[in-house]
Amino acid sequence: MSRIEELKKQNPNLSINVIDIINGILSKSKYTEMSINLIKNKFDTKDNNKKHIIDELVNEYQLNRELLEEKEYLEVMNIYKVISDYFGYSNAQTLFKFIELNEKKLIINNDLSSYKTFDELDLQISLAELRGIDKEMEKQCLKLMENDEWLVLKPLSYLASLKYGSSTKWCTAMKDNPDYYFRYTKRGILIYVINKKTGNKVAGFKSLDDSYEEETSFWNILDKRIDSLEAGLPHEIMDIFKDEFANNKVTNWNLLSDDETNRQLLWLENQYEKKSLRLIDDEPPIAMEDEVAVRARGRIIPMIRNTEENGIQQQIDNHERIHRQFEDEIEQA
Questions:
Q1: 217, 225 in Cβ contact below 8 A?
Q2: CB neighbourhood size of 115 (10 A)
């Protein structure tokens, strides 16, 4: 018996056959046959939906386009439903990233049967990517402490935030969305703590901007706001937070020299122009200059230069409101 057949036998609830399910509901084969024909005729295999679904599976989950295009519409739709319903977007990304690193022999614990949660995969990814940080990336952060177990730092670039914040759900380490990172690092002090043995991470933030509500906050790897005591950090690291938050009046952004600031602005502008050009690759050419202008010059760069008209603060306010609402629901439960 093959390993796949063993898995089907061990997990009957996941060995799903749509025809068996329909027959179990309708009981008689004649109604099952009628229903199958109805379902088949409901979907037009030439429907443009197939292209849209394939585009998402390729762009978001990096599946093979050629293999998908060979399949019927129903097959493509079922693949999408399995990924979206059984895994979910975030977990699917975690799984594919873990597989990529494991195939490169970068995952230490390669006993795949030992993993029970997606959080365990996240921690292993975190450890693997931490080992892959090069010297150039290390220059884009300010290390406050490092020993065999702990690394405490301030990210000084969006790329550093992505690298050191990888495998977290932090808004400041969101791929393709630097808005939160730059807003928070302009407003105050952002510190990342990484456990080099477990892969666990904690972020701390202290607002220094008097135009905003006073804030001192800690966030776990899932981007849930926690009490500092819940972070489980040793006293020596908590002392670093206390000193930084009480005595330091310089934001992460203001730690940069003029040259470093300009380099980041230039990088941002170039990245958004490239992204805009990719986005409009299949669209009519009339949107090109508007898209570039809005995304690069009219959106990101003015944001860094104290232009508040782009609505980014509203995004952050919504983000914080959702966190508060979630915490209220937990308390009520």
A1: yes
A2: 14
